[in-house]
Amino acid sequence: MRKVEYIIRRIFMSLFVLVGLSIMTFTISRVIPSDPVGLYVGPKPNPGDVERVREKLGLNHPLTIQYAYYVRDLLHGDLGLSIASKLPVLEVVGALWPATLELLFTSIILSTLIGIPLGVLSARLQGSPIDVVVRTFSIAGVSIPAFLSGLVLQIIFFRNLHLLPLTGRFTTDLRFTHPIEALTGFYLIDTALTGNWIAFKDVVWHIILPAITLSMYPIGLIARMTRATMLEVLSQEYIRTARAYGTREAFIFYGYALKNAIGPTLTVIGLTLAWSLTGAFFVEMIFNWPGLGTFTVNSLLNVDYPAVMGITLLGATGYVVVNLIVDLIQALIDPRISLA
Amino acid sequence: MEATKKLFRRGQKSEVGEFSRQRQITHTIYVILRDPLALFSVLIITTFVVVAIFGPWLAPYPEQGYGKTDLSTRMQPLSPEHPFGTDRLGRDIFSRIIIAARPALWVSLLVVFLAVLIGAPLGAIAGYVGGRLDNFIMRLTDLFLAFPFLLLAMMIVTALGPGLKNAALAMAIAWWPWYTRLVRSIAASLRQRYYVEAARAVGIPAIVIITRHILPNCISPILVQATVDLGTVILALSSLSFLGLGVQPPAPDWGLMVNEGRAYIVTEWWYSTFPGLAIFVTVLAFNLIGDVLRDILDPRQYR
């Protein structure tokens, strides 16, 4: 029962945060700027645009009514029209987000698969040269800016070694000879599902560098956090007991210690999602990845106000939802949390 | 009587069982001098600060550092006159890196200072007073923390317009919640200590308790976090400048320079690499020192 209570409380908190988010974006987008209409129509408005936007924003009404309009629009999925393309922001985002999501997923899977074992290894061999190396690489991973590591990887693997492609998701020639069926929008899944193995290899080749670049920070963070919590857990009494019983070391590590240490690590994974979301912007810029990041950066450069606001709101909402899911997973697997 | 006098005396700052401030500082210096990584970090940070303060006198071409162009020397590779090469407008990259250190340093100091100034007292009040005020402040904090940092900064800068000052303001607004959360958990646990209870029983007003007992005990974790944050703010500022939201050309900034060099990496590799390395090494140094400080001060006693 406590668990259900906790879950409901947690969901309510997220709803509250979402409402707060909408208030914040509303304030920043309507209240702070001196000329909201100008920001929404852009530098060269069409004749009817100024009136239409002014009416839509409801600038003659008090702020609370304006906010009500704002929320009504949001709930209808109306985030405004992007100045650059005159398309609804939601539509543009909808077309672009699979690319970014594929990159994020690949990066998260990579980070967890590499980061957690590294952390465990580092904890197990504490004090050894391997531990020092892992710790140094973890801190380095956290310190290097994403745009720099992307550029450096491009220089090494494209310019010097000629191993991996420079930019993009897919080689242009292959678009005609082995086109990808758009089933999910995730190229990796689409090519695998349709048996299009030549295209699959090409897609994998293109995603390696961006995924590695995006994963450096999470790997560093996850490895450090796993190591720290593992060390804490390993000093507990029940580990000594298990050893006294003669249980195999490997089982102690992965069966007992890791399960107890995984909690804070999951929280860290949730945190790295925030970083990865914005880190993906830089990675997409560097690798010309046709996703939300490139769109965001272009919108920033063009001062495409509705687009920037829409993306910010959507990104923050996505982050809140993912955090909620992470917390709920944690509550499900770790009974201590719901009882706290 | 004696007990009351002791509570008001300025020296009462350490937790029972903790070393005095003097001893901690000596111990820190001892540890740093023996750990090669820590020593390296201190060296880097000192270099950074010295370069930031004395930049214009150290740079070989200070006017180019600020933006004066020299189109006759465009895109030159590394050479004795230009140790890091020149950029697309002929400016010496080495000088620009040096000059860019100053805004980086003062922005990071300002942002962290503001974040601590706003966040720590809020957290102390929230943790000590508890109840609805605590709830309200923590909800507010959660709200700000729900935004990925860069998104929040992007939004604010887009609304206010690009530029160094606006970027610094945006970062300060986005940063304070971290300290509030940090201090609040410490304050909440300290509230139950005997000497705090005793102070309350004697009738000492809350504001005095917070300033004399709670906040001084938060100094260690705040210090560790602030050290790492100095580096993180530099990283954030360079990221914003990379996107065109922070420092505006012709003013130099490491992130800005990396962006300028992005189009040329395949042929003129030095353009982006050296400013990027400057960012990396500086942030790395702050992170390493923060780690060393954390190992020494070990705030785990407050968990």
Keywords:
heterodimer; A: 340 residues; MetI-like fold; 2 domains; B: 303 residues; mainly alpha; 12 helices; 74% helix; elongated
What's the short version?
The complex is a heterodimer of chains A (340) and B (303). Chain A is mainly α.
Q: Could you explain how this protein is built, in words?
A:
The complex is a heterodimer of chains A (340) and B (303). Chain A contains 15 helices and no strands. Chain A is mainly α. The longest helix of chain A is centred in the last third of the chain and has 39 residues, at 249-287. Chain A is globular. Chain B has helices at residues 2-8, 21-34, 36-58, 62-66, 93-129, 131-146, 149-160, 164-190, 194-202, 206-243, 254-260, 270-297. With 303 residues, chain B is an all-alpha fold. Chain B starts with a helix and ends in a 6-residue tail after the last helix. Residues 10-14 of chain B have low confidence and may be disordered.
N-end to C-end Cα span of chain B: 33 Å
**Tell me about the biggest sheet of chain A?**
none
Task: Summarize the amount of helix of chain A as a percent range.
Answer: over 70%
Order of helices and strands of chain A: HHHHHHHHHHHHHHH
Range of helix content of chain B: over 70%
Number-wise, the strands of chain A total 0
CATH architecture annotation name of the largest domain in chain A: Orthogonal Bundle
Shape of chain A: globular
Count helical runs of chain B.
Answer: 12
- Largest inter-chain contact set: A-B, 50 and 43 residues
Fold topology:
The complex is a heterodimer of chains A (340) and B (303).
Chain A: H1 2-31, H2 36-41, H3 49-57, H4 63-75, H5 89-124, H6 129-143, H7 146-160, H8 174-177, H9 187-193, H10 197-234, H11 237-245, H12 249-287, H13 292-301, H14 305-333, H15 335-339
Chain B: H1 2-8, H2 21-34, H3 36-58, H4 62-66, H5 93-129, H6 131-146, H7 149-160, H8 164-190, H9 194-202, H10 206-243, H11 254-260, H12 270-297
